[in-house]
Design brief:
By secondary structure, this protein is mainly α. It contains 15 helices and 2 strands. It has a two-stranded antiparallel ribbon. Helix 4 packs across helix 11.
Length: 304
């Protein structure tokens, strides 16, 4: 018994019902992806080119004017005497400072867990794994109490120190060194008289550049997008990172907050422009480091 077939309108070839059904499912999924993910991004990119009224009235996918983009830019950076630029600078300081500490801690820790044997090693690895899978929100309260105990609330260290705690980075480095670093190479280096520090700095680190790049990327992106902790520990607008600043812009937008004050309110085009500016550093970093990210994701896929 043979199944009935249907001619494909694109190629004219016969298509079995099972394959036809798979085409329909794939088409539905791609349509859903377009509607819920692609179109909102297109709307976001086009919104700064319109006035607040045009954003609501006109076709969501229509372009306004470059003049309106300039007006939205000027209006946005006039908010609170240039607070937008301050927030972007704060995010760069917090994310960059935490990233340095993350790499200084995560890479040696992952190396030690993978290639050295010491008392409590297995326990420390289990603690790292458990902490890695815990939601970040569960640690905010104990971290807040600890920072308050050391009188760090409201300082730059109240953001940088918690940001630099990155167990996922430790685990990535542990997986790489545990699976991809040739043990014969290390043994030969020891025979040649290399100390453990020289093994780490002259052999392990140069070979681990892809996974270090991966840890750096994910660490920076996580720090840049973190909202909850800075929102709790930073008391005034001049210290806010961009994510907390966007929340303040949102509360100053009458479309979302009808009780916004009568001062310099933010409209939808300025809010959309602020979101684009908040995304651009991460997008630029991703485009620049694509090759490193791919190499880092493949690192450890095969065992030497």
């Amino acid at each position: 018994m043979t199944l009935p077939t249907t001619a494909s309108p694109a190629t004219g070839r016969l298509v079995r019902p099972g394959r036809l059904l798979s085409y329909v499912v794939v088409g539905i999924l791609l349509t859903a992806l377009l509607v819920f993910f692609v179109l909102p991004v297109v709307w976001l990119l086009l919104a700064p080119s319109k006035t607040a009224g045009e954003v609501i009235r006109d076709n969501p996918l229509s372009f306004g004017s470059f003049h309106q983009i300039g007006a939205a830019w000027k209006h946005l950076f006039a908010f609170q005497d240039g607070a937008m630029l301050t927030w972007l600078g704060n995010s760069a300081i917090y994310s960059g400072g935490a990233l340095v500490l993350t790499l200084l801690v995560s890479v040696p820790a992952g190396y030690a867990l993978a290639l050295t044997d010491f008392r409590g090693r297995r326990t420390l690895l289990v603690i790292t794994l458990v902490t890695m899978i815990m939601p970040q929100a569960t640690l905010v309260l104990p971290v807040f109490l600890e920072l308050n105990r050391f009188h760090l609330i409201g300082t730059v260290w109240s953001v940088i120190l918690p940001f630099s705690f990155y167990p996922f980075g430790v685990y990535l480095v542990y997986i790489y060194f545990g699976s991809s670093l040739p043990r014969d190479l290390l043994a030969a280096a020891r025979i040649d008289g290399c100390t453990e520090w020289q093994l780490f700095t002259r052999i392990a680190l140069p070979l681990a550049k892809p996974v270090i790049g991966l840890v750096a990327f994910f660490g920076f992106v996580g720090n840049w997008n973190n909202f909850f902790l800075p929102y709790l520990v930073l008391p005034n607008s001049e210290q806010f990172p961009i994510q907390v600043g966007l929340n303040q812009l949102l509360t100053s937008t009458p479309s979302f907050n009808p009780v916004a004050g009568a001062g310099l309110n933010i409209t939808l085009p300025e809010l959309a422009l602020a979101i684009i500016l908040a995304i651009l550093p991460v997008l630029a970093l991703f485009l620049v480091s694509q090759r490193t990210l791919v190499a880092g994701m493949l690192a450890g896929a095969t065992k030497e």
